[in-house]
Amino acid sequence: MCLLECCARCLVGAPFASLVATGLCFFGVALFCGCGHEALTGTEKLIETYFSKNYQDYEYLINVIHAFQYVIYGTASFFFLYGALLLAEGFYTTGAVRQIFGDYKTTICGKGLSATVTGGQKGRGSRGQHQAHSLERVCHCLGKWLGHPDKFVGITYALTVVWLLVFACSAVPVYIYFNTWTTCQSIAFPSKTSASIGSLCADARMYGVLPWNAFPGKVCGSNLLSICKTAEFQMTFHLFIAAFVGAAATLVSLLTFMIAATYNFAVLKLMGRGTKF
Fold first, then answer.
1. Residue 109 is assigned to a structural domain of this protein
2. d(CA 183, CA 69)
3. Residue 132 counted as domain residue
4. Does 114 reside within a domain?
5. Domain count for the chain
6. pLDDT in tens, 209-235
7. pLDDT (average), residues 234-242
8. b/e for 202-224, b at 16 or more Cβ within 10 A?
9. Which range of residues forms the domain containing residue 201?
10. Using one digit for the tens of pLDDT, what is the confidence trace for 163-188?
């Protein structure tokens, strides 16, 4: 009954904004990392097959792609861990705020949590409550780690700024592939453009993907159209779009986390709880 009562109280005091943000964060990171990894692999194959005949021309590009793929592994692990911590922090601070306004009453199972978060008194030391006190001590220890909303606000703010740069960078390959796809559309429907088909090209060197001495470095006319019709190009293009959407979803989740954490911290600060509670 104690466990059921505790779960019921937790559901009443659940931070719905943090729950939505956590789900959006996990979805966005999974989409960005998974699709981004495969899109980089597809880009490597396209460069090797169509845009350069010399391995030394794209050796540096391959090293950069592999480095980004390893960064993606670390990014996925970090965000899943940090998202879980932010969700736990949301439970802590939201419960404390609702308790201040009288919307959330703690149970004997959560006295250790409330003592850490709101500065309340600990449970009595009777023998029959030994099990409850053990749970309280666990919650109290967790509270020492999560009871610093000001630090979470600062870290999340810095992470949001960094991820804003990632979001901007994820738009670059979408822009490059979209330009290539637009050129292919002009080749497929020559009546829509005044330029000759042979002069319509996709030059990987122009975007810094390959050095200027790479050969051929660019593909033009009907050869470019045949590349655009391949499954590799279509799949890579759509994977980059999906990765861009994932980056946008992650950015929205971080902004939601930051707003919710800032609000909770401001309320607790104004109510005299201090920066550590």
1. no
2. 29
3. no
4. no
5. 1
6. 899 988 889 999 999 999 999 999 999
7. 96
8. bbbbeeebbeeebebbbbbeeeb
9. 14-96+148-275
10. 999 999 999 999 999 999 999 999 98
